[in-house]
Fold this protein.
Amino acid sequence: MRHGKKLNHLGRTNSHRKAMMANMASSLILHKRITTTLAKAKALRMYVEPIITKAKEDTTHSRRTVFSYLQDKDTTAMLFREVAEKIANRPGGYTRIVKMENRLGDNAEMAIIELVDYNTVYTKGEAATAKKATRRRGGSGKGKAAPVAAAPVSVEEAVVVDEAPAAPAVEEAPEAPAADAAEEEKGE
């Protein structure tokens, strides 16, 4: 029976599989995005995410542990130097798998696996919203605090606001009588 065995052997021996995963992980760290089959991408995600988590803590022990998996000094140095800085505040989920169309030769399911923080298409708006939102359970509203006042505007910001050109005056249409407004509200 196969109960509880979630490692995909990928049709390879143990030594071949380890070497292939080390090479693919090195390529992913160096190039930030690689194209492979879907099965290999899923297996690579399970292989590389703990390595990236280990790289967050820059100690001699963690460097040696990561090097034992990657077997490449340049890749290990890049992981600790560049990648670890970008993912420092991310609590996991460092990779993204995007499915592609099947390969023409053998109809294998293809996918792109990439490091999440290096994709500029998806992370354009996330840089501005780096603030972590705290989710709280809504209550009856009795113990809620009063709304916090807006931050004071500095002198430089006030000057910039005053220097803005005035908008051209637009003529306003005469207001409708109050009876017409009441009928419109009932109609909606």
About this structure: The chain has six helices and three strands. The two ends are 64 Å apart (CA to CA). Residues 14-118 form a domain with the 50s Ribosomal Protein L17; Chain: A, fold (CATH 3.90.1030.10).
